Amino acid sequence: xxxxxxxxxxxxxxxxLGSMLTACSPDASPAADGGNNSASxxxxxxxxxxxxxxxxxxxxxRALEDDKIxxxxxxxxxxxxxxxxxxxxxxxxxxxxxxxxxxTLFNTYATEGKFLAEKGWxxxxxxxxxxxEFKDQMNPILQQQFVIGGKIYGIxxxxxxxxxxxxxxxxxxxxxxxxxxxxxxxxxxxxAKAAADPAKGISGIAPMGKGNEAxxxxxxxxFEAGGDIQKVEGGKVTALxxxxxxxxxxxxxxxxxxxxxxxxxxxxLGWGDAVGAFAQSRTAMVIAGPxxxxxxxxxxxxxxxxxxxxxxxxxxAKGGKHTGVLGGDYLVINPKATQEEQEAAFRxxxxxxxxxxGLASIEASIQQRKKDSKxxxxxxxxxxxxDSAYGxxxxxxxxxxxxxxxxxxxxxxxxxxxxxxQFNTQDYYATITSVVQDVFSRKDADxxxxxxxxxxxxxxxxxxxxxxx
Length: 469
Description:
By secondary structure, the protein is of the alpha+beta class. The protein folds into 2 domains: 14-153 and 328-365, 3-Layer(aba) Sandwich (D-Maltodextrin-Binding Protein, domain 2), CATH 3.40.190.10; 163-322 and 417-465, 3-Layer(aba) Sandwich (D-Maltodextrin-Binding Protein, domain 2). It contains 17 helices and 14 strands. A hairpin with a 2-residue loop joins strand 4 (147-148) and strand 5 (151-152). InterPro entries: Bact_solute-bd_prot1, SBP. This is ABC transporter substrate-binding protein.
């Protein structure tokens, strides 16, 4: 998904890392600034690395990245940065690697750690990470997602626990009671039913209905019902999502569609479609990580922070857990890059982490958005821990500005993140998308029958060929 975590064994001495990093800084200790030391020799080997670059629609993020590139190359003049416009796609990564066209540093998401590691498409950065000065302040919940077999294959950027973003103003305008944060499936059902106005093209909730994100959306309800995607036991992977919990979750989807009539008439919405509908006040609720939908609602939809609330996923019943899919954004280093290129890529990835420049960059982005009459929406889970020294500095910056979106102070006590499946996650999501489409298009679809068929397909096509060591 777009939006789309202990820490770590195995280490090497700082002395060894210093000797490895001669291409970037032969005279300085890598511990001096977290591995981001100044270059001091004009005889350094020239290195070229290609890096992930935000898409054209992310104007502010591109501006920040341009500034980062400028500052990095000033500090490391021997490194040339090439901007890559390739955005990670699990269906393209094999082709990119085979053709030697994958960037040195590319973006990916939480589901892909095991897949990339096992395919040999992510560099083992264990030594680089363990010698990193600030490794102990990295958010372990996020970073753990890219620890595979005790080795580290990625660097966390930010994360989320999937929740529900609610248009509070829509509810209040229709005199619908705003549900509590500690809400349930019944609360979601009743709110969605009351907010829907099919004659005017208004839905109460817009579950994603196409692309793998449809399967991702539904999986939250599977988790809330107490179910799971798969189990790994005795060297085998077995499908579990067609359990009683899965049937219960799919029955809830069917009730939203056919009894409450709360979903869009044209329900085949991908992430962008559903989030766009929310920003345009054509639906009262959307299921996602919060920052993207809230950013669009405030900065494109003209809403105010008080109009939009990020909720945890609803518990299946009162007193239950508000479990949502735990996801995030990561950076991975190309294993085909040379040792010097990998080291430079690691430095670039962590260049602004835990630094005053990083704080200044955040503040500059907030200030620019204020000048543009826009809001700044921070990640709900950041790469650092909130109680770290750096986390407190970032919070102090956020607190200075009235255009920083404030999450409810109570939200964290309800968020219950559950990692995605270890094996064939995207294949599972694609299969569940077909299940969701079947239930949304056929009133008489039998949840148990369609889930049993989907589990059989996933088991035979994907899981039976997996041998877990």
